[in-house]
Amino acid sequence: MAVALNVDVKGQGPSMLCLHGHPGSSYAMSVFTDPLSQQFRTITPDLRGYGYSRVRQPFVMTDHLDDLDQVLEGHDFGEGWILGWSLGGILAVEMALRWPQRFKGLILIGTAAHPRSSHPPISWQDNLYTGIAALINRVRPAWRWNIEQFGKRSLYRYLLYHHSDAAYQRLATEGLTAYFQTSKYATQALNQAIRQRYNRVEDLGAIRCPCLVLAGEGDRHITPEASAETAQHLPTATYKCYPDVAHLFPWEIAEQMNNDIQQWLLQVQTAEIA
Question: Which contiguous run of DSSP H or E holds residue 105?
Answer without folding.
Answer: strand 103-109
